[in-house]
Specification:
Chain lengths: 215, 248, 637
Amino acid sequence: MALTGCALFGFVIAHLLGNLQIFLAPENINRYGQFLQATPELLWPARMALIVLAVVHIVASAQLSTENRRARSIPYAECQVVAASYASRTMMMSGLIVAVFVIYHLLHFTIQVPGINFTGQDFRLLHDAKARHDIYQMMVLGFKQPLVSGFYILGMALLCLHLSHGVSSMFQSMGWKNKYYGRFLDPAARGAALLIFLGYCSIPVAVLCGIVRLP
Amino acid sequence: MNLTLKVWRQKDAKSPGRLAEYAATNIIPGMSFLEMLDVVNEELIARGEEPIAFDSDCREGICGTCALVINGIAHGGQRGTTVCQLHMRHFRDGQTVIIEPWRARAFPVLKDLVTDRGAFDRIVQAGGFISVNTGGTPDANSLPISKAISDQAMDAAACIGCGACVAACKNASAMLFVSAKVSHLNLLPQGQPEKDGRVSNMVRQMDAEGFGNCTVTGSCEAVCPKEISLDFIARMNRDYGAALLKNK
Amino acid sequence: MNLDAKIPSGPLSQKWDKHRFEMKLVNPANKRKFDVIVVGSGLAGASAAASLAELGYHVKCFCFQDSPRRAHSIAAQGGINAAKNYQNDGDSIYRLFYDTLKGGDFRSREANVFRLAQVSVNIIDQCVAQGVPFAREYGGLLANRSFGGAQVSRTFYARGQTGQQLLLGAYQALCRQIGLGTVAMHPRTEMLELVIVNGHAKGIVVRNLVSGEVASHAADAVVLATGGYSNVFFLSTNAKGCNVTATYRAYKKGAAFANPCFTQIHPTCIPVSGEHQSKLTLMSESLRNDGRVWVPKKQGDDRPPQKVPEEERDYFLERKYPSYGNLAPRDIASRAAKEVCDQGRGVGPGGLGVYLDFADAIKRLGGGVVKERYENLFEMYEKITGENAYQTPMRIYPALHYTMGGLWVDYNLMSNIAGLFVIGEANFSDHGANRLGASALMQGLADGYFILPYTVGDYFANMKQPRPSAKSGEFKQAEERVKTLARKLLSIKGSRSVTSFHRELGKLMWENCGMARSETTLREALKRIPRLREDFWTNVKVTGETGELNQDLEAAGRVADYMEFAELLCLDALTRQESCGGHFRVEFQTPDGEARRDDEHFAFVSAWEYQGADKPPILHKEPLVYEEADMSQRSYK
Ligand SMILES: Cc1cc2nc3c(=O)[nH]c(=O)nc-3n(C[C@H](O)[C@H](O)[C@H](O)COP(=O)(O)OP(=O)(O)OC[C@H]3O[C@@H](n4cnc5c(N)ncnc54)[C@H](O)[C@@H]3O)c2cc1C
Ligand code: HEM
Ligand code: HEM
Ligand code: SF4
Ligand code: F3S
Ligand code: FES
């Protein structure tokens, strides 16, 4: 669980960095996309790994929560929450919503199923001057749809809720926590989650506000 | 003061239980919570009803026998306090108080508020010791141990094995207890030779007993009467990971 | 009755070594053939069960708690003594021996006490090897403190939880054996009968406290490690479940009960707050190092303590014992407190309490220092009383704490019944009329780790009695007696609860046979106890049934035994016409109120033999002979 969570967290960071290239010229991100597409020996193993990680993470979480539910057969009549944060108690919910988001996101930007982007266009047909797939244009067009952007922001929010607990939990589960920085861990995890949230959201928001627009 | 109690009554391990309502009258703020239950029991006996069964022994917060969930909080919510040390002055006149047993599959209810915590003993039997026989041990001062390590081991060893951590955990996980037991011995130089086996065996037994998994929600630490730190869970995870790697 | 103590010959310091050499050994292959029952899993029981199992015997261990780790030893706070002389302050085995003997007011057996001091050093080694986290100095070596009036620092401690840590050490050793299958542990099981076959203790009958099932267990020897009987006074610092049942029922089977009147009272407990009080809580005596004890001079003065001006306060310990002041020994401080309360000058609810005031200490040392020294005690006090002792003086009162008396045992820790061994607080052997602080833990572990494993072997090597079947007639009869008793208790269906009887008995005992005893009060008690007992057997109301978890029935059985045992205790107190240690007879005191011991007539162990329900027990005397130590008078002026 922790191992996969940790790797997924790594992907989220890397992906964020990749995506933030949108704030540079369209050239950058398109080149980046092209680079990825052009090196299948890198892309596919990475994709496979991601899929495996995601599947393992989800299967493990399902197992975990059935075991945990079984561990208390009779619930308390009255139960007060002590110390446990909201995020920590709703990992399964936030995780599932993230999963839904990711599926939509894959259909939207990776497989680029035309029907679900609500722009009436087919993203597969977007090409830039150098005949590369125009990711820049796809993103801008995609996020011009307030509904889509809204859903993305919601997805991000839940992801970050998930991570606000997940990251510090990960340190605990991996046994990395110690008494020197242990007490900064929870706030740090929340901070990191917030940064990731802001980072990702900056993209749809920037598009909606017209800061990032088609050249 | 007067209180309304809703108490879990269950005839034995096999029968279903339910919450029954009792009035606790003329309660003095200086009474301990268990003394309040004593008073209620005396009245039940006077009326010819069966008294409420609950566990306690030392009544001074050290033996770990007493175990009640009061209004949804294990040991009743006073920091660092077992329920036998909880006093009625923390309650309000007229309040309704719900009293339930520890709830966990690994701690089956035996009667009313009494549960079977034998799982904890079996976890210790699986490895919570240092294998030395009586006699033939070296002089106690032949092995200096740094005060910092010794103090930290003592922090862990302070666990009274009450099981509140399990009761409070949303997953009924025993990680805080097990990590305290493991850390006490794994921190000390005497515990090094059996370090890996100890943590692996105790964790295996813990899982076999049907406790849930830790998702780091932290309720255990908050209700623990000995304020055992969550850091010990991290430490145990580390020891466990190291043991796994070495065994591979 | 044969009360041969079997003390080995030779010089005191060589007796144990000589005896160990002379004892017969059991061939390792044969050890497997012997079964031992250990009742009790406190320091004494757990250490004995683990050590015996390590040697290769089959052990069955019993305790009434839900886990062996919860035995009452867990509550000990202060520490454990050992003659390690790590502090280089002049300690030695001989000094620990002499301190213990003198502290016990020369009413203990010299050879036993010397052996205790000898093995004390091994205990610490053993515990450290098990991982007991004793306090340490910055250099990494073990720390010590001084305790209970000793002039040397020989007490080892683990924060305020020494008993817990030592018990966890023994419990872990026990768990290891349980895991290996050499010990069968029976928690939540209460011993209710001792079974004797052909003069040898061969087993016990127990009740499973969860299912109510009554069962027999046969073995080649029985070890009782069932702790003390302070709860005959109802209110004491002992845990709720502590009882005399195991030892008393052995007594009824012929085991001699020694010195039952030797009980110890601890001066610094938190006072009773009302009728509902279920037990008393001890606070470390170290508080008396800085607190000043006082009561108002006027009777019935109910002003808050801060409002009582200095000149209207009576610092009675400082007044009566100018050189020791607030640090006067336990028994003296306790009696002085009782005296002022009897005069109607006690403070707090019911007038049973005296102030322990830190105002001067805070002025002198500053609040910070006081907090540093006593923070956890102040916190504990606040938890229980809701009062802040930095601002208002603590209230304290003496309470029953420890019982030196117990079943009579010889040098081998075997009672007068062959094959019945008694260890820990349950026996009488090492503390005489008064126990020094931090010595009970030492004794329990000495018995269990280092003495019993040898002497049991010697018994087996000499014993030619086969182990009976647990289905034999003696066991069946004993089971029947247990069941009949339970049925009888349940059938009375009277109008008073078990607790109300216990409370009344306790009060009666405390008033008449507590800190100060006199012929009048003891005769009064001896008159009232049988009446109360009769009332109990006609009027008690025990709810529930036998075949279930029934805490009311458990308590009823224990109180039934206390009802008889209390009488024995008072009888012993009446016949011992001297004051010594914890036994203070007001008739026998020096003009300035000190205990007056009578070595000429009372230098013996009183060992009582049961004669049947309606006959008075017979007193046997084991003379106490001191070969090397000379008997001096205690003085704390
Ligand atoms: C509050 C307090 C503080 C103390 N502090 C100190 C200190 O600082 N230093 C010191 O040296 N001493 C101290 N003492 C004394 C010391 O703790 C005890 O004398 C000692 O621990 C007794 O150990 P034990 O093994 O003989 O008995 P216990 O620990 O009392 O164990 C008795 C065992 O017998 C079992 N048992 C009893 N009856 C039955 C039955 N009928 N059937 C089955 N099982 C039974 C119980 O389950 C238990 O396992 C203190 C005592 C108290 C009360
Ligand atoms: C504003 C936020 C995001 C933007 C703009 C964005 C953008 C993109 C784009 C453009 C692609 C397609 C790349 C390509 O086809 O070459 C992609 C793929 C992907 N994204 Fe995102 N993404 C965002 C958030 C996320 C989040 C939060 C996750 C995961 C939790 C995620 C997971 C993925 C995955 C798994 C892929 C498929 C990678 C692959 O092709 O193997 N994305 N993203
Ligand atoms: C990109 C997506 C995801 C990332 C980056 C991620 C990351 C993490 C991390 C770092 C942890 C902490 C691991 C630990 O300490 O053990 C975690 C835990 C968890 N995740 Fe995810 N996760 C993702 C998706 C999901 C999904 C889709 C689900 C659900 C189906 C899910 C369910 C859980 C659960 C239940 C936990 C609980 C474990 C705990 O609380 O410690 N996660 N996740
Ligand atoms: S860790 Fe704390 S809550 Fe859990 S058993 Fe130990 S003392 Fe009780
Ligand atoms: S409450 Fe439970 S989830 Fe882990 S941190 Fe404590 S065991
Ligand atoms: S009864 Fe011992 S801790 Fe509460």
